[in-house]
């Protein structure tokens, strides 16, 4: 048992020492007889040796050495020694403690929100509902009212038949199971309850033009680059076809689901405009006392173009949407009497997608525009 | 070697016992360290001092010298020396009568 404790004390705090003196073998012989634990003894010269001893054995060794030998501590190691020396440095200890506290506190902060099991309900709406209940990335997890959040989700989405809201580490997981919306509505009809008319959103063209880029964020793009679209045509549909993944009978499988479509569609839109301007520039008399004889001169081409540019700018300010860009224009001048009629053809690059709400269940609106 | 002989060898605390390879030597039943140098370690074996005299009637009388290069005494503990390094020679000898 003594050997075991000696072993433990050696590894908890061991000291590398240098022993200097004459007849080192006598000192080491005394150490052997005292049962001291001496390790890695290396004889450097006849009067010098280095070795490792435990902290307790070093005291005994110093007593044995008396004044005949000089013992110098070179270094110290060991788990116990490292812990003690760590706590002797308060700033380092405080820094490590602070880091530990930060790590622990971070484990109480929500890192991600994951939603499982949704089919007809868009994930974005579920995420938004959770966010309204204070469940989002970066919130303090113990402050979340889980019961209230579950209740709100049930109220907001009546088609959810079961949900499980829980956390796993720093991740919040919402698992839901949806009923068939049609069955639910039928039940409400049977019980005489008011039926909620659900809607979804399409993005339609607010002007005719040639599509340049299509960026659907939610929904399915119905047009592609280079297409010519008419005003009112559906660009991004909120009615998404659904590939059946269950073995339900064919008639009961959902074939589509609905989202609030979002996105941007940029197109080149041609505009034909017509402006009028005076043909002549009128000069004023040099002397106001003289009889009025106004001189006139016909506008040059450059003057007419400058005036037209001004008229186009005024028109664009009132009629073009934000971020629209005039990329090409063609001017034609037709002098007629005292006026010049200007025919303008503009090519404007602008965002043409505009949201249009549709009702789910109405036959016309659910028909997809291909 | 029979069981009885082996038992006697194991129990005999006076005889020098060495486990030796070319890079390590374990000396057991070490009573005293007689001499240390960079290239050799000499120890005596057997019971120590008064105990040896009381039990055997004589002081320890068997010595062992390990000679080599880069010798490091890895452990001195409870009558055992573990020596590392390049071992070149192990030698037993008895000094003149110590009665």
General description of the model:
- With 370 residues, chain A is of the alpha+beta class.
- Helix content of chain A is 31%, strand content 38%.
- Chain A folds into four domains: 2-83, Alpha-Beta Plaits (2-Layer Sandwich); 112-190, Ubiquitin-like (UB roll), CATH 3.10.20.310; 199-257 and 353-366, no CATH class; 269-285 and 295-350, Dna Ligase, domain 1 (2-Layer Sandwich), CATH 3.30.1490.
- Chain A has ten helices and 20 strands.
- In chain A, the strands form six sheets. Chain A has a five-stranded antiparallel β-sheet.
- The model of chain A is unreliable at 363-370 (pLDDT under 50).
- Chain B is of the alpha+beta class and 99 residues long.
- Chain B has a single domain, classed as Sandwich (Immunoglobulin-like).
- Chain B contains two helices and six strands; from the N terminus they run H-E-E-E-E-H-E-E.
- The radius of gyration of chain B is 14 Å and the shape is globular.
- Strand 2 (38-45) of chain A pairs antiparallel with strand 5 of chain B, so a sheet runs across the interface.
Blueprint (SSEs and pairs):
The complex is a heterodimer of chains A (370) and B (99).
Chain A: H1 2-12, E1 14-20, H2 24-34, E2 38-45, E3 48-54, H3 55-65, E4 70-77, H4 79-88, H5 90-106, E5 112-116, H6 123-132, H7 146-156, E6 160-168, E7 171-178, H8 181-190, E8 199-205, E9 209-218, E10 220-221, E11 228-229, E12 234-237, E13 239-241, E14 256-258, E15 262-278, E16 280-283, E17 295-298, H9 301-319, E18 325-336, E19 339-351, E20 353-359, H10 363-366
Parallel strand pairs in A: 5-7
Antiparallel strand pairs in A: 1-3, 1-4, 2-3, 6-7, 8-12, 8-20, 9-11, 9-15, 10-12, 13-14, 15-19, 16-17, 18-19
Chain B: H1 3-11, E1 17-20, E2 24-28, E3 30-36, E4 40-45, H2 49-56, E5 62-77, E6 80-93
Antiparallel strand pairs in B: 1-2, 2-6, 3-4, 4-5, 5-6
């Amino acid at each position: 048992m003594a050997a075991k404790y000696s072993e433990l004390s050696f590894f908890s705090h061991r000291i590398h020492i240098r022993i200097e003196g004459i007849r080192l073998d006598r000192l080491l012989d005394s150490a052997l007889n005292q049962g001291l634990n001496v390790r890695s003894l290396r004889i450097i010269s006849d009067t010098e040796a280095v070795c490792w001893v435990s902290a307790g054995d070093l005291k005994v060794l110093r007593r044995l050495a008396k004044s005949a030998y000089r013992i110098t501590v070179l270094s110290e190691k060991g788990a116990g020694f490292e812990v003690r020396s760590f706590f002797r440095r308060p700033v380092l200890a405080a820094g490590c403690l602070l880091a530990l506290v930060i790590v622990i506190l971070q484990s109480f902060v929500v890192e991600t929100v994951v939603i499982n099991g949704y089919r007809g309900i868009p994930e974005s709406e579920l995420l938004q509902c959770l966010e309204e209940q204070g469940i989002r990335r970066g919130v303090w997890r113990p402050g979340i009212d889980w019961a209230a959040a579950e209740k709100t989700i049930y109220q907001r989405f009546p088609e959810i038949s079961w949900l499980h809201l829980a956390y796993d580490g720093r991740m919040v997981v919402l698992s839901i199971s949806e009923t068939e919306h049609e069955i639910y509505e039928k039940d409400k009809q049977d019980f005489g309850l008011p039926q909620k008319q659900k809607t979804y959103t399409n993005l339609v063209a607010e002007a005719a033009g040639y599509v340049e880029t299509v960026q659907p964020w939610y929904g399915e793009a119905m047009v592609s680059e280079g297409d010519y679209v008419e005003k009112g045509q559906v660009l991004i549909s909120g009615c998404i076809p659904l590939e059946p993944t269950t073995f339900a009978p064919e008639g009961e499988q959902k074939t589509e689901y609905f989202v609030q479509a979002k996105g941007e569609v940029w197109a080149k839109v041609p505009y034909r405009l017509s402006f009028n301007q005076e043909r002549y520039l009128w000069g004023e008399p040099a002397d106001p006392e003289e009889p009025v004889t106004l001189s006139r001169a016909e506008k040059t081409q450059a003057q007419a173009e400058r005036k037209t540019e001004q008229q186009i700018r005024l028109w664009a300010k009132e009629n073009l949407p934000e971020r629209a860009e005039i990329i090409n224009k063609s001017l034609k001048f037709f002098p007629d009497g005292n006026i010049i009629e200007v025919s303008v053809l503009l090519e404007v690059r602008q965002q043409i997608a505009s949201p249009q709400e549709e009702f789910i269940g109405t036959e016309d609106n659910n028909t997809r525009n291909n | 070697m029979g069981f009885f002989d082996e038992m006697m060898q194991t129990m005999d605390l006076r005889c020098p016992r060495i486990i030796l390879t070319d890079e390590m030597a374990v000396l057991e039943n070490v009573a005293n360290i007689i001499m240390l140098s960079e290239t050799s370690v000499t120890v005596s074996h057997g019971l120590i001092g008064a105990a040896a005299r009381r039990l055997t009637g004589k002081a320890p009388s068997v010595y062992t010298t390990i000679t080599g290069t880069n010798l490091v005494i890895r452990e001195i503990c409870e009558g055992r020396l573990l020596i590392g390094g390049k071992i070149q020679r192990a030698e037993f000898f008895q000094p003149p009568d110590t009665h």
